[in-house]
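As a warm-up, study this chain.
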Amino acid sequence: MSKNSDNTNRCILCGHSTKYSRPYLTTAGGGIIRNCAYFLTPLWILQKLSLFSKKFNSIVVNRKFFGDKKLFWCDSCCFAFVLPVFNEAGLDSYYREFYWQAREEHESFFNKDPRIPLESKIKSVEDQFDWVSLQGVRFSTAIDFGAGDCAGAYVLVKKCGLNNVSVVDSANQTELIADSMGINYSRSLQDIKPVDFLYSSHAIEHVADLLAVFDRLAKAVCEGGYIFLETPNIADKDIFYGLVFTPHTYSLSEPSFRKICEARTLKVVAVHTTGPEWRQNHSNIDSQARADLRVLLQKLPS
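Now compare it with the structure written out below.
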């Protein structure tokens, strides 16, 4: 834990000086073996070991990509960001060439049949849409942004009966999954007409430029339309210091979502925290906050 002495790194949301910071890669929340590999083993040794095990290659890639980064925490709006900022092309390449390829090889993340997401993912998405429905939201066109395994789009088409659904993600794996499901795919929101409803689950905390992405999200929905977002709920400084962040680029909370909406034609309609308390699964975090945050936004007339 450290405080910034010069206070030059101001929060990109509220402009306040950020008093607290930490290296992007830390021992916090990591096991002994992980920490030895990340912080005690020379990179050249890991590169040799990566020839025999993909686990070591992951460490090599993450050390090279995140090693020079630093996280800054704003107490005013409970928000964290990374400096130096990520290059969007470089971040897209990281996800496309490494992150999703590693996920694809992880049997517990993808179903053997790419046309059907894992049952656990389907149930999670259905629970999200049940919460959205309780807010009185109705829609006929939708986008699944940062779609990943397309579980959101799958439920929208197969369970909700929508005919006009698109997925947006730069990952090649997502394009293959969307094609196998017969769902419209795009790498950019700009290529799709505005919709009634935009769904995004655990995606916006991975983007290179959060504020630019929010501008795109706002343009992607019609006036009166809705945006559903779920992210990790980094509600306080203890959570910020206690987590392994890889590969997140931002951390958000209810105050930070409200601050983002202040500068846009968006309003917060509903907020809900869900999942276990952080302290339940992280012995180094003493926080009663729940691990996930759901936010429903509505686009106002311009």
